[in-house]
Sequence to fold (138 residues):
Amino acid sequence: MAGTIRWNFIVGAVSFVLTFLLSLSSNVWLTTLLRSIYSFIILFVVTFGFRFIMGLLLSANSTAVNETAAAAAEGPSPNKNLGQHLDLTTPDETAQKAADGVDREEAEFAPLLPTKLVTRKQPDTEQSVRALRQMSEE
Fold:
């Protein structure tokens, strides 16, 4: 845990005094005292949780610093500047290869040739009328 229990008492005492002073004018002194004690206890416990989390963060940070120092003591790594430079130049298009490995100059443009749509021959209107009359008679 980060710090000492003294921090818990300081935070609890400050909350006790503030609660006591702010609620004294609107409450009976016994109610004010009881609420101030509750405030002291609650913030005393919350400070323990806060100190525990801070201790975890500080210990994780110190181990990361120790690992970095150990890596630096071993010597320079071959990828020391990896990720430090951004190359914004575009490569020459003639030197690029297509995704399938063929030179772009060799790959010729071929338009998409979809299959032709075929419309069905329209049925004879007289035949349709006869079929409709026959169905309506039945």
